[in-house]
Write a structure and sequence with these properties.
about 300 residues; alpha+beta; 9-stranded antiparallel sheet; two-stranded antiparallel ribbon; 13 strands
Length: about 300
């Protein structure tokens, strides 16, 4: 009788779990994606700060990093609806083409080999403007990888035949290019092969719903805008951004500060699959009961 009660208790507990899971719950990898991350919308939108190095010609490599400020509009996006955790990212890519747009001082930069790693911290957000970018990169890269993404080739199959991960229009305005403004974006796909991110997070974001120009599917639309008007003061002090204010920006210096958006769809279990989990556990309990009776 004791074994029968244990089996029934297990089955009832599993059924209660399946029925008690709120329809709006979408908590993955310690992050609460809220109503938008689950039924009926199954979408996500992250907004982030961004700092980036200046790139100008084919072969120039750009590095950027930042803090993810909101997830689906919520600044308290940690599990438990608080701000006791934080997400950051580091990205790199390389200029594959630089084409004048026809507008004075403006060039369309096409990037390839885009790689982005999102990192999770179990601590509240740090202020990334209290130290220079080198220290920020060291701080972020020491955190726990949460998800990894790659640029999806073919997002910019333009009339000139170029196909790249991302594209930005970069404007150098004023005497000696004293003002730098960039705006652009591209498409990203979750990298499931490297094994670096949280498997549950990456499966959740791996929706494959965004059609690219070359017929493949991406997971996330990435957009950004930045300029050199307000730079990290510690980068300016140590000389890693001083050229950005002189009218002659140097490739590789931290000339850009701005914002970025990452948006896409999500993949979550159907409510019916939760019920199946409950039934499976219930079946396990009944099987144990039969074995005990047989004895």
């Amino acid at each position: 009788m004791v074994k029968l009660k244990q089996g029934l208790a297990t089955a009832l507990a599993a059924g209660a779990l399946a029925m008690s899971m709120p329809a709006s719950a979408a908590i993955v990898g310690g992050i609460d994606f809220g109503v938008l991350g689950s039924d009926p919308f199954r979408s996500h939108l992250e907004t982030a700060t961004i700092a980036a190095t200046f790139a100008q010609a084919v072969g120039d490599t750009s590095t950027s990093y930042g803090y993810i400020a909101t997830v689906n509009g919520d600044v308290t996006y940690c599990q438990g609806n608080n701000a006791n955790c934080s997400l950051y990212f580091i990205a790199t890519n390389t200029v594959s083409a630089a084409v004048p747009t026809g507008n004075p001082g403006q060039t369309a930069l096409y990037f390839d080999d885009t790689e982005i790693t999102v990192y999770y911290s179990a601590a509240p957000a740090a202020n990334l403007l209290t130290q220079d970018s080198a220290a920020n990169l060291a701080f972020i890269s020491a955190l726990t990888p949460w998800a990894t993404l790659n640029g999806e080739n073919g997002t910019d199959a333009t009339a000139d035949g170029l196909a790249a991960d991302t594209k930005v229009n970069q404007t150098l305005a004023g005497a000696g290019a004293g003002s730098i403004v960039v705006a652009g974006g591209g498409l990203l796909s979750i990298n499931l092969a490297d094994g670096l991110g949280d498997a549950f997070v990456e499966a959740f974001l791996d929706a494959n719903t965004i059609l690219t120009a070359n017929g493949t599917f991406a997971d996330i639309i990435y957009t950004e805008s930045a300029n050199n008007n307000n730079l990290n003061p510690f980068d300016v002090l140590n000389g890693s951004a001083d050229s950005c204010l002189t009218g002659a920006p140097v490739v590789g210096e931290w000339c850009l500060q701005g914002s970025a958006d990452l948006r896409g769809n999500t993949v979550i279990p159907e409510p019916g699959s939760l019920a199946l989990v409950g039934l499976a556990v219930a079946g396990l309990g009944l099987a144990r009961r039969r074995r005990s009776i047989a004895r």
